[in-house]
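New to this. Please check this protein:
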Amino acid sequence: MAGRSNLDEIGIFTNPDRIRILNLLIKKPYTITEIEKDLNINRGTLKHHLKILHENKLIKREKQSGKSGSPVLIKKNFQTIESIIKKFPKQQSFLIGLIKSQLDIK
């Protein structure tokens, strides 16, 4: 996330769909189609969010070995959501509240 301000980096977490994507990827890698179906996000919007998450090194893409045209797996590039939050020590409370509200956690 080099070259970006803390405000820009925190902005990554202001979109509920991006939080939902990261939360989903904690469980296992998914294809774009699986994410699209599980989260009910249209493909164009999903690709936009995946691009932002990939540019910020929060996810990685991995081609499945085997046949040509195999789907690309989207994998998390972090251990936990908490490990992401720890990168922002001054904004931890704010981010925790923001993420909880995005995921509707009390």
